[in-house]
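Posted in: Structural Biology > Protein-Ligand Complexes

Title: Requesting predicted complex, zinc ion in pocket

I'd be grateful if someone could produce the 3D structure tokens for the following input. Sequence and ligand are given below.
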Amino acid sequence: MLEFVRKSSNIYKDKIKSGTFSFYCSNCCSFQKANSSDDWSLRNQVICEKCGLGGRFRHLYEIIEKIKPSELNPNVALFEDVTLFTQILKRKYINLKTSEYFDGYKSGDLVQYPPIKDYFITNQDIQNTSYESDSIDLIIHGDVYEHIPSIEEALVEAKRILKPDGYMIFTMPFYDFIDETVVRVEVKNNKLNFLMPKHYHGNPLSEKGALVFTEPGREFLNLSEKVGFNVKLSLGYDPLKGYFPDCNESDQRHCWNLVFVLSLSNQQQNNNQINSSKLMDMNLLTKNYEEIKKINQDLKNIADKYKLSNEQIIESKSWKLILFYRKIIEKIRFKQKIKSFLKKIKIKSR
Ligand SMILES: [Zn+2]
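-- Reply #1 --
Done. Output follows.
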């Protein structure tokens, strides 16, 4: 499977790097060209030239659009503040509470943010916030959980602050091929104990980056269920939307472009909404590898049929054609299914 992911994503790599890759942006609702910086990963760095969102955030935004909280003006807790994504969500939600984490401050403290004069940011520790119990309709965060000492504490805290019919929608690097979460750093007696070499991810607040505490494996799913959440997820692999996984050729690891949707498991009503949003259970992920293969096969079939090269089928002009033929392919598949179903009935009735 890994081989396949690498190959299929590598088809697009050069195109993305050269700045001639086009895709459908879920935020702009139009076809856009992709920008890319040097230090890039396919999961993050297929950046929309118009709105500036990378693939991970566009995928997150698409799912946020699909899952509607029951309140008209929901209370939304977003665990970031200085990002472009915050600006986009500010336009969407009137009651948006934004925050960042600053070491040495209490949750709820206002911290002066030096680059902007008289700008204060609320400090929140996602494991122990200052939000009241049952007060939040929607929690949103992007790649935060791998940077905290205890994901379990954060899940318990999310359950506390969420209203009974609330949701938590987020991204995090998730390594579905490992069972146990890898702990790189643990906290012992209020001190950091490094079990593995220090590793940092990009951080808009510090040049040093954000320290990676864990690399979550499948254990995370059991943990979420144990705390009381129903877990669904969206697998973002779609060349048409510019969603790709990270797949590093130099090591054996790959990281899907996933969005997690957690709801409190006793809520039948919102679980229906989740089920109608084409989200899936984790145990379906393996089945969906087959779906991904099909998507690429569809693209290849169209390329063969119309004698287009791989480069040509990802030119913007060809996108609409591909979307159109994808629909036709779906119809043909549907007809074939009905045919085989009718055949079965005939055989039975004889
Ligand atoms: Zn865009």
